[in-house]
Amino acid sequence: MDDPVLLTGAGGRVGQAILHGIGEAHEWRLLDREPLSSDRLPPGVADDDVVVADVTDADAMVDAMDGVGAVIHLAGDPRPEAPWNSVLENNIDGTQTVFAAAVEAGVEKVAFASSNHAVSAYETDERTPEMYRSDDDFRLDGSELPRPGNLYGVSKAAGETLGRYYHDAEGLSVVCVRIGNLTGGHPPRNYERGQAMWLSHRDCAHLFDRCIRAEYDYEIVYGISDNERKYYSIERAKEVLGYDPKDDSAEYTLDGEPKDGA
Ligand SMILES: NC(=O)C1=CN([C@@H]2O[C@H](COP(=O)(O)OP(=O)(O)OC[C@H]3O[C@@H](n4cnc5c(N)ncnc54)[C@H](O)[C@@H]3O)[C@@H](O)[C@H]2O)C=CC1
Ligand SMILES: O=C1O[C@H](COP(=O)(O)O)[C@@H](O)[C@H](O)[C@H]1O
């Protein structure tokens, strides 16, 4: 991908993990509704390629996509407990605006940050906590129906459906990445669910690099590291994107300390 990549939500946790890992591998246009301080920018990004805008602003989004080859769309309200008015505006309206602007601007592909919460109601009382453990073989693989556990999850399922529509109606290539739990340095501490869906910073950057480089039509994949504990399959991400994760929460104790040799 020689054309610039637009990264929305560039100043946040996922955006910064991506930029720290692959900031020098692509030309970027970085967008956030909050101004981005210089320590949040990879080297060599021109001032014109740093955009302060809200993703619900249709004109600003079309402008931001001028000449762009791919979009990584992260901006939104990431709180599982977020209220309806916020996810309706930031996550659903914002994501529709991003997809529509991508079509209008002639962008080839969009990677959408979906979430584990789009399917978190599969974690029933009967299945938990056993499904978070390495000897349990329950798996979600992306072909199942959404089953959100909260309104935030509903907004992510809506984003996936918008992606399906813009692929079918307009030919946009779309990959929805159901991100697990991103933490830097070590998996979430003393949290079996979080360890089963840990996404390390380096695997996160590599996964979105593959979303930029790979060819696909419409896909839903899980974005977790190669954890021994898991209830999400990463086979589709490997097959379609060439995802090759390096980290595993089993290399750490439950309280997040590296085990010997890790
Ligand atoms: N951090 C995680 O473990 C996970 C994150 N995700 C998703 O990944 C995306 C990024 O999450 P994080 O980086 O953790 O969140 P964050 O809150 O750290 O970053 C989000 C960024 O988006 C910006 N933003 C929010 N609403 C905006 C709007 N309407 N217009 C423009 N910019 C806006 C914020 O200013 C912020 O810089 C979100 O869509 C979230 O739902 C999904 C699953 C797990
Ligand atoms: O979608 C998200 O999921 C992660 C993990 O969820 P949690 O309920 O186990 O914490 C969350 O940390 C993140 O903020 C959210 O955007």
Automatic annotation (TrEMBL):
InterPro entries in UniProt: Epimerase_deHydtase, Glc6PDH_archaea, NAD(P)-bd_dom_sf
Family: Belongs to the NAD(P)-dependent epimerase/dehydratase family.
Enzyme class: oxidoreductase
Molecular function terms from GO: NAD binding; oxidoreductase activity, acting on the CH-OH group of donors, NAD or NADP as acceptor
Protein name, entry field: NAD-dependent glucose-6-phosphate dehydrogenase
Domain NAD-dependent epimerase/dehydratase intervals: 5-190
Residues at the catalytic site: 152 (proton acceptor)
EC number(s) recorded for this UniProt protein: 1.1.1.388
Binding site for NAD(+): 90, 115, 152, 156
NCBIfam families: G6PDh_Azf
Catalysis performed (reactions): D-glucose 6-phosphate + NAD(+) = 6-phospho-D-glucono-1,5-lactone + NADH + H(+)
Keywords: Carbohydrate metabolism, Glucose metabolism, NAD, Oxidoreductase
Gene (UniProt): azf
The protein's role, per its UniProt record: Catalyzes the NAD-dependent oxidation of glucose 6-phosphate to 6-phosphogluconolactone.
Domain of life: Archaea
Organism: Haloplanus litoreus
Pathways per UniProt: Carbohydrate degradation; pentose phosphate pathway
GO biological process: glucose metabolic process; pentose-phosphate shunt, oxidative branch
CDD domains tied to this protein: SDR_e (cd08946)
Subunit structure as annotated in this protein's UniProt entry: Homodimer.
